[in-house]
């Protein structure tokens, strides 16, 4: 089959066919002219059938064209064609704008990371990331009704669920309007958190830090915190992104589309796994040995949180970037135990660290409040969910899956 024929059968664009090739899902053969591509019809049909009926272990392969994120299983991640680990040197707000409008990162300034004051000044020149008084009032009222120990990620979900009541223009689905909604949504979510300290600047990273730590950050700490937010922003068509797109396809307003994504993100096999990694590293910081922790997991037949990935065959670039920013930290709470853990789990070809481990290490190394790792992940991912929402609004309603009934045969009426 030609590339165009394969794309038509799969219901995707030609570029997506080549994405399947890079993932090892299709084999590309050279055409007779040595320039064009050919694909085995049987292999294409098998992939199409798997997408319709479910692949390994009954998992469905949902395939959508997107201009937002490219995930290379070999260990690279790109936001609109730009390396995400390079973008992580920029403020979170700029990268969010890139995902929403393909703007915000085109300046050719120096790549060195600014200090806290410079970062705040840079953010100030962007569009305002503030919530209006009505939104903040709603956020504070709903937060006041929650128990004191409510984790930050749950606080975000409650805030996002309540915010539509304060926005009479929430059904404006033009990209610029949704971007404005996104700025206010994220600002209200982070500013609604009970403050543990005073923000060092007006950036989202500094304001989130103030809700997670009882002291101001150093410039190095704020840099790592901002990078973690950026690298949390999107990861291709994760289940949370698909949930947001399904809601947006039905023309749910942006708040509800994000809320749909946050609901999926809360599952133990998605965003909830970040909390498991943080909890495990907190045990190590409290004195538990690596050998005991790993041995207990092996004895229970359970994986060690924070290792392995369903897509990456190489390293998780997000984990590498954040762990590199954290550095060895010999006098910190983990004091070398993280390297020991990575070596123990990776022995005999074991799995490599993933982003969950990096976020957990960030929270424990910096002594943040419990639940802070998931808070970074959830708040950062709101940017990507809004990007998917904006992109999905371009399409007509297109999600109407059909079920294959396998239950009892219908009984004729007696």
TrEMBL record:
Gene3D superfamilies xrefs: Citrate Synthase, domain 1 (1.10.580.10), Cytochrome P450-Terp, domain 2 (1.10.230.10)
UniProt superkingdom: Bacteria
Listed EC numbers: 2.3.3.16
Pathway the protein takes part in: Carbohydrate metabolism; tricarboxylic acid cycle
PANTHER family cross-referenced by the UniProt entry: CITRATE SYNTHASE (PTHR11739), CITRATE SYNTHASE, PEROXISOMAL (PTHR11739:SF4)
Pfam families per UniProt: Citrate_synt (PF00285), HTH_17 (PF12728)
Keywords of the record: Transferase
Gene Ontology cellular component annotations, sorted alphabetically: cytosol
Keyword Transferase: yes
The protein, known as: citrate synthase (unknown stereospecificity)
UniProt keyword annotation of Zinc present: no
Coiled-coil ranges (or none): none
Enzyme class: transferase
NCBIfam families in the cross-refs: excise
Domain Helix-turn-helix: 1-50
GO-annotated molecular function: citrate synthase activity; DNA binding
InterPro entries: Citrate_synth-like_lrg_a-sub, Citrate_synth-like_sm_a-sub, Citrate_synthase, Citrate_synthase_AS, Citrate_synthase_sf, DNA-bd_dom_put_sf, HTH_17, SinI_DNA-bd
Native source species: Actinocatenispora comari
Entry similarity comment: Belongs to the citrate synthase family.
Biological processes per GO annotation: carbohydrate metabolic process; tricarboxylic acid cycle
